[in-house]
Design goal:
This protein is mainly alpha-helical and 506 residues long. The protein has helices at residues 4-7, 16-33, 41-50, 63-75, 79-103, 108-120, 122-129, 133-154, 159-171, 177-191, 194-198, 200-227, 231-257, 264-276, 285-300, 308-327, 334-353, 363-366, 378-389, 407-416, 456-459, 495-502; strands at 401-404, 426-427, 446-450, 461-462, 465-469, 484-488, 490-491. The strands form 2 sheets. Strands 2-1-3-6-5 form a 5-stranded mixed sheet.
Length: 506
């Protein structure tokens, strides 16, 4: 291989003890707070998807529901039991960013800073607290980046299969891993390293083996998507159509918010270091991969957090110069300033992303992070549904159906409804549509749960009357506040005939 000695230079020792201490504190805080509110809307959905295991779903590949099922099987069906797997992923994220810092030649102090800055960032705190596809996507991207950095730094072609395996697993969680690989490839083609591109002819068997391995791992999900008409593409187009303009408008400011404005100097310093430092020219592709990924996400109207893993790579690269800046301080106590900045970041991001505030005070943070409110109010919603259900005559309930507008409402009823004697709910939303329709023999009353501005859903039913309005008891904490519950005499047609009209993909 070209330049083997320079490429395979000795890296600084890994600061295993200090980094592990940061990860342990991070895990302890998240575990202590994991049960303070309740399940998130998406978590309720993942729990139900985990009871309908498949190689794919309308809106996602199979990995996150599988991990949700595994976590609750081992630790119990509770917010704390479910979120154990998210906390474990968060710990691995902290460790991986510290290892990425080491790949750039960062010493022990800089590795510790990388771990600490990652642990207090908004996205990593939120990812470790909630089970979501973004949680495991963030980890998968960072692992791929670590393996890619090792390949670029050493030129060792044997890293290709490892990258392929990591990419295949990432694709079983979210298709966005394709964007990462494409962005890194664009970076290598545009800025090198030249030995990697020059040796492409000799490396192709290893590279092809990585591609084949990735395809073999993700093949079952591709088969499922093809068999069902590629519904994830429909969902993606719905995201762009509904939220695309808002996503584009907030993209740039949220690049600062989703980690923390106070951490911006780290990733800016990291970009400059990778671009300018001749000793790190082999890793310069990351400076191109980030803006390339940003352009693609902006063009497609994707969500601004999609590219945050690459921002964490740049943050890792920026820790060494920032530690050097702190060490050179005179007059001002720069290390103390750096520590104070991390502490302030931890407090602000903790309040914004973790269940620290009482539920009655959530309006203070919901404008910045609506995911906080999405963990409150679901038991109250189900209790209200149960009250409406009791207004249906007992002799009609065996043929009655509960139908909800979205998977959050359905997931909450599936979770808490048995305690009230409620039947399994149905919904046409996302993969819930694949778990229906109700049997055509269900010709009794229909209890509808929907938002007041939804005029389409109730129009499919006859004889509807308002039975209740949802009030979570703590104010406008989530989107379900003010949802209507109506009892209708029946459906306009049969369930099997009308089910396609009741389906919604976003």
């Amino acid at each position: 291989m070209p330049e083997p000695r320079a490429a395979d230079r000795a890296l600084p020792p890994f600061a295993a003890g200090p980094v592990a201490a940061v990860a342990a504190v991070y895990a302890a805080v998240l575990t202590a707070l994991s049960g303070r509110y309740g399940f998130h809307r998406d978590e309720l959905y993942f729990l139900q998807a985990g009871h309908h295991l498949a190689w794919g779903y309308v809106d996602q590949p199979p990995l996150t529901p599988l991990l949700a099922r595994a976590s609750t099987t081992v630790f119990g069906t509770s917010p704390m039991g479910l979120r154990a797997v998210a906390t474990a992923a968060g710990v691995l994220i902290v460790l991986t960013v510290a290892l990425l810092a080491r790949e750039t030649g960062a010493g022990r102090a800089a590795q510790l800073l990388a771990a600490a800055a990652t642990a207090v960032s908004s996205m990593v705190l939120m990812s470790g607290h909630l089970v979501s596809t973004a949680t495991f996507d963030l980890l998968a991207w960072l692992v791929i980046c670590l393996l890619a950095a090792r390949l670029l730094r050493t030129g060792d072609r044997r890293w290709y299969p490892a990258i392929g395996a990591a990419t295949g697993i990432a694709l079983l969680n979210k298709d966005l891993a394709v964007l990462l690989i494409a962005s890194l490839a664009a970076g290598v083609l545009l800025v090198g390293p030249r030995p990697v591109t020059a040796a492409a002819g000799r490396s192709w068997p290893w590279a092809i083996s990585g591609v084949v391995l990735a395809l073999l791992i993700v093949a079952p999900n591709l088969w499922w998507q093809a068999r069902h008409g590629w519904p994830q593409l429909t969902v993606a187009s719905g995201i762009d159509r509904k939220d695309g303009m808002l996503n584009r408008a907030t993209f740039v400011p949220f690049q600062f918010v989703y980690l923390a404005p106070t951490l911006a100097p780290l990733w800016i310093a990291g970009w400059l270091r990778l671009w300018r430092d001749p000793d790190l020219r082999r890793l310069r592709a990351f400076t191109v991969a980030y803006p390339v990924a940003c352009v693609v996400v902006l063009a497609t109207g994707g969500k601004c957090y999609y590219v945050l893993p690459l921002l964490l790579v740049l943050l890792a690269a920026g820790t060494e110069p920032v530690v050097g800046w702190a060490a050179r301080g005179r007059g001002w106590n720069r290390p103390a300033i750096l520590a104070a900045g991390l502490l302030v970041t931890a407090v602000i991001d903790g309040v914004a992303t973790l269940p620290v505030l009482p539920p009655s005070s959530l309006s203070a943070v919901n404008g910045v992070n609506k995911e906080q409110g999405e963990q409150v109010g679901w038991p109250k919603l189900v209790a209200t549904v149960a009250g409406a259900w009791k207004t249906i005559p007992a002799d009609q309930r065996l043929r009655a159906v509960i139908l909800t507008q979205n998977y959050g409402e359905a997931g909450a009823i599936a979770m808490y409804g048995p305690g009230y004697g409620l039947p399994e709910p149905y919904s046409g939303h996302m993969s819930y549509s694949a778990w229906g329709p109700p049997p055509d023999s269900a010709t009794g009353p229909v209890l509808l749960v929907f938002f007041p501005d939804n005029k389409i859903l109730p129009s499919e039913f006859t004889g509807c009357r308002l039975a209740a309005t949802v009030d979570d008891g703590v104010g406008l904490s989530n989107d379900e506040q003010g949802a209507q519950i109506e009892v209708c005499s029946g459906l306009r047609g049969t369930w099997s005939d009308r089910w396609p009209a009741l389906r919604s993909y976003y």
